[in-house]
Amino acid sequence: MKGVIFRCLEELVIETKGMDLWEELLEQHCPSDRVYISAQSYPDEELVALATSVSKTLNLSMPETLKAFGTYLFSFLAKKHTSIVNEFHSFEHLILSIDKVIHSEVQKLYDEPNLPVIDASVLDSETIKLIYNSPRQLCFCAEGLIYGCAQHFNESVDIQQTTCSHHGDSMCTFIIKHG
Amino acid sequence: MQNYYKAYMREKQARDKLEELLEEKTTKLYALNVELEKKLELLERQQVAVVQSEKMATLGTLSAGVAHEINNPLAYLTCNIDTLAVYSKDMNDYLSLTSKYIKDEVSRDEFFEQFHKLQKTTDIAELIEDLSDISQDCKEGCERISAIVKNLLDFAKPKSDSLLEFEVSDVIEHATQLLENKLKLLQLDVTCEQNLLLKGSKPNLTQALINTLVNAAQSCAKVKNADPSFRGTIQISAYKSNDKAIIRIKDNGAGLEEADINRVFDPFYSTKPLGEGTGMGLAVVYGIISNHHGTVSISNNPDSGVTLNLELPLTI
Ligand code: HEM
Ligand SMILES: Nc1ncnc2c1ncn2[C@@H]1O[C@H](COP(=O)(O)OP(=O)(O)OP(=O)(O)O)[C@@H](O)[C@H]1O
Ligand SMILES: [Mg+2]
Ligand SMILES: [Zn+2]
Predict the structure, then answer these.
(1) What is the Å distance from ligand 3's center to B270 Cα?
(2) Is beta strand B233-241 parallel, antiparallel or unpaired with respect to B187-192?
(3) Which positions in chain A touch B35 (Cβ < 8 Å)?
(4) Does the interface predicted TM-score (ipTM) exceed 0.95?
(5) Is B58 part of any domain?
(6) Which residues pair with B109 in a beta bridge?
(7) Pick from B4, B19, B30: CB nearest A39
(8) Per-residue pLDDT for chain A (179 aa), expressed as one digit of tens each?
(9) What is the pTM of this model?
(10) Which domain holds residue B6?
């Protein structure tokens, strides 16, 4: 996973729980000389370990933690990559362009990123179907990102996950109602 | 504690700034790279065009030689056909006499008398022997012409439908046949291992070999001009080494100036008098060999002349 994701977690933890907790987490799960740089890749297990500890301190389940993190992550990415996100004028416009535009820009900026396959389609003027597929199985994080995206555009959303790879389906499906 | 937090925030800001810079550079590099890729594609397309036009140019120079090659068999074909016309009159005399005799229009004595008269001007045994010689000659002449035509057609075939597997020995044979006229004053030695299979464009590789052989022949001719007793020699050898085919074209001609060695593959580089060489010969060789994922190099021989060294990946 790219450092940019770790840097987001770092910011979230320090803003809400303070530097001491972050230092503790680093000490527990990372090599002693660890400094996160956005463009560099770090082991996925390190993120999982950090997130697991965070979920324990916050007294939240792992899915809830990832969802919350995803929500924060969207605003973090929007701040970091303003020129990419500013291309979009609406929630629907952005969601439909995740794969073809956003992550393909990411592909240009980052060296060999690990990106999911996301296929979004419009069901009707207020419903989008989004299919998420990734060996990293971070659908809860994706859900959070969608919430964060709605917040960014001042929209309210209701997200139903109708299939999930954690429950034996081949991929995860979200039905997103927005307006 | 407050101070530490400030220090941390400062460090964080530094990281942010640096990452911003990095992103800016990455974006620029990416755009530059896209542009370079476009240029590369354009260059590659132009290279194909150059190969094609060079082929047409070579075809031009070749056609003079080819015309000469076809004229030879054509001359003795014409001559033989004239002789055949004369013989056909003689045969006609024999045959009509025989036919008359069979139909009882002449008596046995008359038949023999006239037959002996004919024998005196045209001997029947000679006639039979000559006829078989003439038909054999005509057949050879026609075969020679059709071989030349076939080579020309093979050579002119467009690149796209000729990505096939073929033997190195075929390419060598093909190229030397096309150049027979130019090479005939030289001693040509070919040693080629069999079953050296390449994949790619046979016409283009033939072209590469032709360009090389033409250079070698020209270099030998240059020495011969100064010293008429000089005997020009070109040795072509092809063999397998690891999973590559090595093809060497060695001449005993004028050799290269050390300073030219690095430049001979440059497009339009020629040491010939203005208006004589295009200087595209070896540039095209380089292009073709690169397209086949091979390498080409040139060096002076220890004694005299030049060796051009081609290495091409074998299919298996
Ligand atoms: C609602 C919109 C988005 C969704 C649902 C989404 C989804 C995801 C998910 C789930 C991942 C984790 C990797 C995986 O699951 O295989 C990911 C990675 C990533 N995404 Fe997005 N994304 C969104 C928008 C964005 C935006 C706006 C950006 C930035 C311009 C972005 C940049 C990235 C980057 C840098 C990674 C990390 C790649 C790596 O670690 O190698 N994404 N995305
Ligand atoms: N076998 C050789 N011996 C000596 N010099 C050579 C030999 N082959 C090539 N050269 C040198 O390399 C130069 C470039 O060769 P190239 O085939 O590219 O162009 P050219 O022969 O000058 O022109 P063109 O092929 O259009 O007639 C030649 O002018 C000559 O000086
Ligand atoms: Mg030449
Ligand atoms: Zn899921």
Answers:
(1) 8
(2) parallel
(3) none
(4) no
(5) no
(6) none
(7) B19
(8) 999 999 999 999 999 999 999 999 999 999 999 999 999 999 999 999 999 999 999 899 999 999 999 999 999 999 999 999 999 999 999 999 999 999 999 999 999 999 999 999 999 999 999 999 999 999 999 999 999 999 999 999 999 999 999 999 999 999 999 98
(9) 0.55
(10) 1-37
